[in-house]
Sequence to fold (147 residues):
Amino acid sequence: MIRGIFVAAVLAAGLSSVAALAQNNTIAERQQLMKGLAQAGRAPGAMMKGEQAFDLAAVQASLKTFAETAKKAPSLFPAGTETGNDTAALPKVWSDKADFEAKWAKFGADAEVAQASIKDEASFKANFTGVVRACGGCHETYRAKKN
Fold:
C-alpha cells in the first residue's frame, strides 16, 4: 500500500516536471522567434535611417522572415505559458486571444504585401514603415515594457 502511494507520488511529481519543462520550452521557443524578428528588422531599420545602403535582397529576406514568423507565432502562446522563463507576454494575450491572433495575421499579411510591393528604395520607404508599425502595435498591447 505504502509502495503504491510512493509510486503514485513519484509519477505525479514527474508529470508536473514534464509539464513545467514543456511550458518553459514553448516560452523559450517563442522568445527565440521574437529575437529572430528583431534580427530580421535590423538591416531594414538601418536602411530606413540612412545608416546602411538599400539592399533589396536583405529587405525581401526580412519580410519573408516576418511573414513566416507571423504564421508560426500564435501557436507558441498556448494556455499554461502565461508565466515562467522570464516571459514578457502580458495576460492580455490570453484574455483577448482573438485580437492577438488577428494582429499576427495582419502583420503577416502586411509583410507579404510589402514583399510583393517593394521593388526599389522608394517603394521600400513607402511600404516598410507600415509593416514595422503593425509589429510595434502588438508590443504596445501584449508585451510588458522593459525597464
